[in-house]
Amino acid sequence: MLIKLLIAAVVVVAVVVLLTRKPEKNTGSVKENDSREKNRQDDQIRDNMKSGEKSEAEKVLKEKTENVEIEQNDDKKEPDEELKEAKKALYQYINQALKGMYGCCGRDDWGNYMAPAGCSELITSHYDEILNELPAAQRQLVEGLFGCISPEGEISDREALKKHYLSMMLPFYPQYYKEMKGIRYTALLSQDTLELFRRLTGKRYRMGYRNRFENGVTAFEWKGNRFKVSNKKGQILCDAEFKDGQFWNGYAFVNVQGDDEDWIIVQKNYYKDGKCIQGDVQYTYQKPCC
Q1: DSSP letter, residue 47
Q2: What span, in angstroms and rounded, lies between the C-alpha atoms of 88 and 101?
């Protein structure tokens, strides 16, 4: 009996030992797992910190690069804007000069034409740069104008200036400028002149825009280089093709100087390949004014 009790006691002690050791083993595993998790989190935090530092550095570098690009763009923008303003100022000067010429020419008062005041410093400082950007035809128009008008607004050769002015207009204008009174002068500018205005302003201009007299009569119609021109009464002045500013094919009425003030003497000329092949003189009675 005593032996049985001893055996039972040993069994109980063994069970107790086993039970007490198992929690210790489990606790160690938990602690080990906790330690691993903590190490993993620490590594992640360090990685995040490194990544954050890298992102922040990249952000700072990107901002610096953008700032440099903005500064460079600003440096480039200023000259471009100034050149644009210079072109606009040149357009305004030429426009004002041509408008004054149109008025004096229509009144047969060319001798009293006064050029606009001297060019601004903005124009003169960018003059060569503007010319270099223009096609040959437009460059010649500007050079021809300022070859007769100094930067101070002085006219060096009045007749050469008139010839150049007429070259900037439509081809029929030199012959019929008196009959074109009342037409908006920009409607009479040549295509080359309008192209010059477009390149200086960036705006588009239409040839013949508002080419009507106050009474509604259309001053001219055209197709290519052929122009059909009428006076204020609707009478046809010419229906002809032009080449190099001259009548080429078609017909045109040309005034003939006469001593009789009671009659208007005109000659209807027919042209072929630039040569007058026939001319018919016509007389129109002009009733005295008193």
Answers
A1: H
A2: 20
Identify residue 225 by its one-letter amino acid code.
N
Q: How far apart are CA 224 and CA 229, in angstroms?
A: 14
SS3 assignment, position 273? coil
Q: pLDDT value at position 40?
A: 72
| DSSP state string for 95-131 | HHHHHHHHHHHHTT-GGG--PPSPPPHHHHHHHHHHH
- Is 112 in contact with 104 (CB distance < 8 Å)? yes
Tokens at residue 186, please? 């920009």
The whole-number pLDDT of residue 9 equals: 63
What is the structure's pLDDT at 287? 58
Residues of the chain with pLDDT under 70: 1-35, 37-39, 41-79, 256-262, 283-290
For residue 137, the surrounding DSSP H or E stretch is helix 136-146
pLDDT in tens, 178-234: 999 889 999 999 999 999 999 999 999 999 998 999 999 999 999 999 999 999 999
Beta-sheet strand order (sheet of 275-285): 220-223, 226-230, 236-243, 246-255, 263-272, 275-285
- Please answer whether residues 227 and 243 qualify as being in contact, where contact means their C-beta atoms are separated by less than 8 angstroms: no
- In whole angstroms, give the CA distance from residue 211 to residue 216: 9
- The residue type found at 139 is R
Distance in angstroms (rounded) separating the CA atoms of residues 38 and 31: 10
